[in-house]
Design brief:
single chain; inorganic pyrophosphatase (n-terminal core); Diaminopimelate Epimerase, Chain A, domain 1; 6-stranded parallel sheet; globular; binds manganese (II) ion
């Protein structure tokens, strides 16, 4: 039996299925939950299929069909109420990423109390080191650019399930976001472009989806302006920028949202950090507004095939991928001290 067939027989033999993904969900995580959830609901109308996520996403995805049926909130509570006999984890490889603070309780509930079956559908890059959990019944972990693409292939090409309303927009959005609109190197490009083409024929629009998702508010642009003002060429081959302590403390005093600070940093790191002069990588560092004591978080970005920023992040107690990584809880007296810590980690990592 293939993993796809095993997956189908798990669905058929279960009464209550919970479909979920990781905390701090990205559009691929949410779209994957929705694409699979809507598809299973259409094809298995007598089964109870619940889509659930512990945390919401900053972007407004409510225009996607089925979004209103996702149950947002503590996953432990959702699972205790539903008592699923099958958990499908998408865009994450195990239970440990499903809840912010209740993973141990969740594991106990799922494994010991409910004795639920577990299926995983997740994609990864070749450099990821997945620890496959022996308690997982079906593992569909493949080298694919987006989980939304995997679910499309699994449901519609391998299992020949019927497509639910709105599937084209949901699938295309997950693919667009995880590939950064087809920008990243993709060893599975033939499948990606074939499927994207089918989704466009089915009525989804790259232009509409991209403009719907790329919305900035004034506060996010204020953060971006600050980062652009602080941008520095290290003269060591990389770029960096930072949110200074005064800006962060004024931001907090004014009651401006922490999320805008994070989003502003994301816009900068995704769209400008790899683009200054002849530098193809770098970092952005900012004070953690919500932390009790002063601490800093750093995000690294690199063009693929260049510097391995995951190795640098690992020296700082963080992690990620070769092209995008980060670390939290960096202890320093002020932002200058924090920047020095990062520069030192970079120098050591490059010398290693
Ligand atoms: Mn993904």
């Amino acid at each position: 039996m293939t993993e796809a067939e095993k997956f189908k027989s798990l669905i058929e033999s279960s009464e209550r299925t919970l479909i979920t993904s990781h905390i701090s969900p990205d559009p691929d995580a949410v779209c994957s939950v929705m694409l699979l959830g809507q598809t299973l609901r259409k094809n298995f109308p007598n089964k109870q299929i619940q889509m659930a996520l512990e945390e919401n996403i900053p972007q407004d995805l409510s225009f996607l069909k089925g979004y209103s049926e996702i149950k947002f909130g503590p996953l432990l509570k959702t699972a205790s109420e539903l008592k699923p006999d099958l958990i499908v984890i998408v865009d994450a490889a195990d239970i440990s990423r499903l809840s912010r603070n209740q993973n141990q309780e969740l594991e106990r509930l799922i494994h010991d109390e409910l004795k639920a079956k577990i299926a995983v559908v997740d994609h990864h890059q070749a450099d990821d080191n997945f620890k496959i959990d022996g308690r997982i019944d079906v593992n569909i972990i493949e080298d694919k650019p987006a989980t939304a693409q995997q679910i499309y292939e699994l449901c519609f090409e391998q299992l020949n399930l019927a497509k639910p309303d709105g599937y084209a927009e949901t699938a295309l959005l997950g693919i667009l976001r995880d590939t950064s609109r087809f920008k990243y190197d993709n060893s599975d490009h033939k499948n990606t472009f074939r499927i994207a083409s089918e989704l466009l024929d089915a009525g989804a629009s790259i232009e509409q989806l991209e403009y719907r998702l790329s919305r900035f508010n004034k506060e996010e642009l204020m953060v971006l302006a600050h980062l652009l003002g602080n941008v520095t060429d290290s003269k060591q081959g990389y770029t960096y920028s930072f949110i200074d302590d005064q800006f962060a403390s004024d931001w907090k005093t004014a009651g401006r949202p922490d999320t805008a600070l994070k989003t502003g940093c994301d816009i900068f790191s995704n769209q400008y950090l790899r683009n200054l002069n002849s530098n193809f990588w770098g970092f952005v560092i900012y004070p953690e507004l919500l932390a009790e004591a002063i601490s800093y978080s750093v995000s690294f970005r690199a063009v693929s095939g260049g510097v391995d920023v995951a190795a640098i992040a690992a020296r700082l107690g963080g992690g990620g991928h070769k092209e995008a990584a980060g670390a939290k809880n960096i202890q320093a007296n002020d932002i200058s001290g924090a920047i020095e810590i990062i520069k030192k980690a970079i120098a050591e990592s490059l010398a290693a």
